[in-house]
Amino acid sequence: MKPEPLPPEAMLARLVAFPSVVGRPNGAITGFVRDWLGIHGALCHVLPGPEGDRANLFATIGPADRPGYVLSGHLDVVPASEPGWLADPFTLRKVGDRLIGRGACDMKGFVAAALALVPELAAMDLAAPIHLALSYDEEAGCRGVPHLLSRLPELCAPPAGAIIGEPSGLVPVLAHKGKAAIRLRADGVAGHSSRPDLGSNAIHALVPVLDAAVAQAAVLRSGPQDARFAPPWSSLQIGTISGGLALNIIPDRAEAELEARAIAGVEPRDLLAPVTEAARTAGVAVETLSSYPALALDPDHPLAALIEDLSGKAPLAAVSYGTEAGLFQAAGVPAVICGPGAIDRAHKPEEYLTTGELDSCCALIRRLGQRLLG
Fold this sequence. Notes:
Aminopeptidase; Alpha-Beta Plaits; 6-stranded mixed β-sheet; 23% strand
């Protein structure tokens, strides 16, 4: 006997209660989602990643052998250690029309809407399928979804499009920048600072590589421009730097993390080439932390017209933050961003989604199902 459907707010409460922090095992939340989908007749695949303790999930409602549409979201959230929380971040609270909890906006609200609609979608006579693609470790640079996308050809017919439900106020977004991030590490030989001849300063070794990064950042400002983005150029910045134990000790290790953000049509990793070449020359190690391409959906693409019709809102040309959408596009699946909530609430204490935003997202997904009726 099937359980009673969970209203969207109750589903969101269940999802928020899983502390599915990025980089940690996610078996509890994927198990819950798998069971929920299974009892409502969805064909569900749990796809373990190479880490062994985390998995993506892909499910289909309707005929998997026909082109359909993907509802894509991530199940991981950023840590909730900020001091500004007024209560347990992993217990959903309702204050007025606000549903407060870690991930409520980014982006368990979209996932909750999709899951809450599963019984309703399963009861429809869909002529084309609706798929759910739920990933892990998106917050670490979209590390999980590439493993899901590599399995897509064996899971379904090539999808006609993907809706990535990152918070956009349910305004469709057609483009975003790509990103690549690296960590630099220089090793030296420790010693007393009074005898630099007996040691090797790791911070000094790192400096010419950082100089190359600063120079490249300046070059990019006058490089190719795309007025859809703010700023309209590709960018590069040094985000963190660490090294040394005390002023009178020669540092034997120094690290820095850098990121490049690329306008559409530019490969993010190429922007870091002068930095990696300087690192090679200086004997500094380079570790890739993350990389994902830009998104650029043609405004005349049928998916753009569909999502405008479903949302009732004219598409936004571009945003400067990144999502998994570019990876779907690179895998041959046209993609667009459209989800409830606002991106400026993400990664903050007292993160929230309003009841109206959640209901509007459910209505959008319901309209998609109705468009696909046989």
